[in-house]
Recover the amino acids of this structure.
């Protein structure tokens, strides 16, 4: 039996956003095959609070000192799959691989986009990339979209990039909400563009019912957003969904707004579609942009606040006939995305099997 180790946050660590859902899906796939799959996960939330004791099987290791775990156990695995790029473990594993034969897969999870690099510590990130490029011949690279493949290829020009979309396991929930209200649901981080949304609402004095959900990842950035929230009537911060259960928001909102700077995949988009919300998304920032734009026509230019204003007003003031039409278009589009899941599962199984 061959052994696979997947490194990254595992439930209930939902503060990490999309990567947690991606890693859970990967584990669910491979745990049903003849490949022995284990997961090495941090044992703290993004805010530094320690994970409470959880009941999971022995394949899932929540570990404080992951370096120590890898040094002691790397020899047990035929494939090690790291779901992050700006992580010192990639350097440790790259050095170990010089002396020990195993496959090392890196999934950057959107971290190599220019937007992700520029939002925090860009100089340190660029230095780190140059160091890792010294070991590039030892790396197998995985992306989840064509745009992410292009981002990776800017740095790893001669490396093969295996592009396989993320998986999701969600059922559609009917949405009966008729009032025009809005939700922002994502990590509170500059990359997600919440400040752009709030400053636009304030600048144009837009009348809106907006609830904000999300784990506060960047506390300094949150202070900036909080000032806007305190000054805008109808906008409220509702906390985070600690268990990641999107169905708790079922039948509460008509529209969701995501003014993101970049999404390599965008689990949150799929999740909010699954509870029947009409998408309002920044243009050219996510893999679903072209389809969503053609179906719903509520996309906006992230660099143009007047464009965002116009789209929000369009949603607020659209006729009942158009509103019902857009609402009824969410289910078919979600079903279309959902139809591909079995094919994607097979691609992942083949990807790993071909390495063994």
């Amino acid at each position: 039996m061959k052994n696979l180790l997947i490194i990254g946050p595992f439930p209930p660590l939902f503060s990490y956003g999309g990567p947690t859902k991606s890693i859970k899906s990967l584990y669910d796939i491979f745990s049903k095959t003849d490949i022995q799959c284990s997961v090495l996960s941090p044992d703290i939330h993004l805010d530094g609070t320690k994970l409470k004791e959880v009941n999971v099987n022995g394949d899932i290791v929540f570990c404080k000192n992951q370096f120590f775990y890898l040094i002691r156990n790397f020899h047990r695995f035929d494939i090690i799959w790291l779901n992050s790029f700006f992580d010192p473990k990639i350097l440790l594993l790259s050095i170990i691989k010089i002396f020990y034969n195993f496959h090392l897969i890196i999934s950057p999870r959107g971290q190599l986009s220019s937007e992700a690099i520029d939002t925090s510590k860009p100089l340190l990130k660029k230095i780190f990339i140059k160091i890792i490029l010294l070991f590039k011949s030892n790396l197998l690279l995985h992306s989840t979209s064509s745009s992410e493949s292009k981002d990776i290829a800017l740095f790893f020009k001669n490396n093969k990039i295996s592009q396989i979309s993320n998986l999701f396991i969600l059922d559609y929930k009917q949405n009966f909400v008729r009032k025009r209200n809005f939700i922002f649901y994502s990590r509170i981080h500059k990359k997600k563009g919440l400040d752009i949304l709030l400053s636009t609402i304030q600048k144009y004095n837009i009348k809106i019912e907006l609830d904000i959900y999300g784990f506060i990842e960047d506390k300094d950035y949150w202070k900036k957003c909080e000032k806007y929230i305190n000054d805008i009537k109808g906008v409220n911060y509702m906390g985070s969904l600690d268990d990641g259960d999107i169905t708790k928001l079922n039948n509460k909102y008509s529209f969701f707004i995501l003014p993101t700077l970049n999404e390599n995949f965008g689990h949150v988009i799929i999740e909010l579609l699954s509870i029947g919300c009409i998408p309002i998304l920044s243009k050219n920032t996510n893999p679903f942009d072209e389809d969503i734009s053609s179906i719903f026509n509520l996309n906006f230019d992230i660099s143009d606040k007047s464009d965002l204003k116009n789209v929000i007003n369009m949603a607020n003031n659209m006729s009942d006939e158009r509103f019902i039409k857009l609402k009824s278009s969410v289910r078919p589009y979600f079903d279309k995305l959902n139809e591909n899941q079995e094919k994607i599962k097979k691609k992942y199984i083949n990807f790993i099997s071909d390495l063994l």
Observations:
- The two ends are 10 Å apart (CA to CA).
- Residues 207 and 220 are 27 Å apart (CA to CA).
- The domain at 182-338 is CATH 3.40.50.2000 (Rossmann fold).
- The chain has a mean pLDDT of 94.
